[in-house]
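If your schedule permits, I should be very grateful for your opinion on a structural question. The matter concerns a single protein, recorded as an amino acid sequence and a row of backbone structure tokens. Could you please explain, in whatever detail you think fit, how the structure tokens follow from the sequence? I set the record out below, with my sincere thanks for your time.

——
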Amino acid sequence: MGHLAAKDIYRKLGKKIDGIAMRAPWNEHLYAILKELYTKDEAELVVKMPYGLHRADKIERVTGIEGAALKKLLDGLGSKGLIVDVWDGREYRYTISPFIIGIFEFTMMRTRGELNYREWAHLFYDYLHDGNSFYHANFGHGEKISPLRALPYEDAIEESQYVEVLDYEKASSIIEQSDKFAIGICSCRHEKMHLGEKRCDIPLETCSTFGAATDYVIRNGLAREASKEEMLDNLARSKETGLVLCADNIKNDISFICHCCGCCCNVLLGISQFGYPNALVTSNYIAKSDSDACIECGTCALSCPINAIEMPSEGAPQINEDICIGCGVCGLNCDTGAMRLVKREQRVYHPETMFERVILSNLERGTLQNLLFDNPNNTGHKFMRGLVGGFLRLPPVKKALMSDGLRSRFLDRLRRDR
């Protein structure tokens, strides 16, 4: 009976995590992960916590867990990356970590040495590869909002269009505009190393964090503080080795850049191996080959990290525009300059802020009602989540709210109601 009760709390925990910005479909692999990561008391707290970002006093009121006991649980969860705390200038606000970006990354980024990383690599691999259910739940219905977006390499952009590159699209500008930095272990390469599937010689320590987010990762042993010079060196090394730069999918207050290789990155593998091109939001650029300058050497195809370029038996490289992410790695490796990035015909939508990204991600994945009525223990909120959730999941409603015409007004109204 005790075993059944324990499994029940982890089943509820899985449902709670599945109800936030990124879906986490339930299976036995997820149960194994949650059971190992969360104590029973920690699981019960997360199940009772309100959705969204809240102060400790509200969490105390909603959960009924008081004072020192609550702080001890929140601190323990934070040290494992299972709760994210954000300083608002006066006090910390807490939110539940999603599976991605959150539980997976922070577990595999831990530097304190208390985990059996080989075991954890297999646990996460088994979950993410179980019938591709995770990828399908998050990207199998035409979703446009991913936590990550591709950054174009500035040197790969067609010279005539370079002046139009905006600061949020430039890795160098993101670094220059930040005042605090941290570098940590790439969770994907760390996972693949312990699985024996890391085919590259890229170092593990590449994951870059900026600004206010650095306090969290440094304080919890998920990364080390770094200088601006180290960040620029990291960027230069990634350019030289042909890594894809994947940034926080927002325009303002960008908190991280991942330096991704095609053999290890779970997001890139979501495109190349599992067939979900929207797992990563593209840049506003796309690869294009100049047939007059191309010598048909095939270097661009070999360097593409998602296999978006093919070389026919005769003729110029063929670019699959349906999956090209506009990273520019192919252009960096083209000696003749024939392969360059040009502007896409239609500008790609990138959310302005973290607030916008979370709201739109929840809307696309059918969980926005949880943020609107955030108390999981309130009967009235439970009723409204069911009612409003059913309405928001209607395809015409979701399509209208995500459209260019209504999206801004919808977000403005939610921002005013916060």
In short: The longest helix spans residues 2-18.
